[in-house]
Amino acid sequence: LGIAQNRSFVCCRIYMDYNATTPVDPEVVRVVTDALTEAWGNPSSNYLPGMRLSKIDVWQTSNMSHLKA
User: Which among 28, 36, 33, 29 has a CA at the least distance from the CA of 53?
Assistant: First the structure.
């Protein structure tokens, strides 16, 4: 029998190319989508959308700093 015909060998799918396309956590998709559609502006500016981004940037920096290698 060929490998494809041997049902006991073909039991599950194993994806081994995470370097090319890695599944994205749904929460990450939500946050990035919100950022791209709602959080636009220049965080260095003094108008309201920019000031909101400045606060997000400070939060992000403090919450992600532990991930730096």
Answer: 36
Tell me the C-alpha to C-alpha distance, in Å, between residue 30 and each of 14, 20, 24, 37, 41.
27, 21, 10, 11, 19
This model's pTM is above 0.85 = no
Q: How many CB atoms lie within 10 A of CB 8?
A: 5
SS3 1: coil
Query: How many CB atoms sit inside 10 A of residue 50's CB?
Result: 14
Cβ–Cβ under 8 Å, residues 43 and 50: yes
Q: How far apart are CA 64 and CA 41, in angstroms?
A: 21
Convert the pLDDT of each residue in 11-68 to its tens digit.
677 777 777 777 888 988 888 888 788 777 777 778 887 777 776 665 565 665 666 5
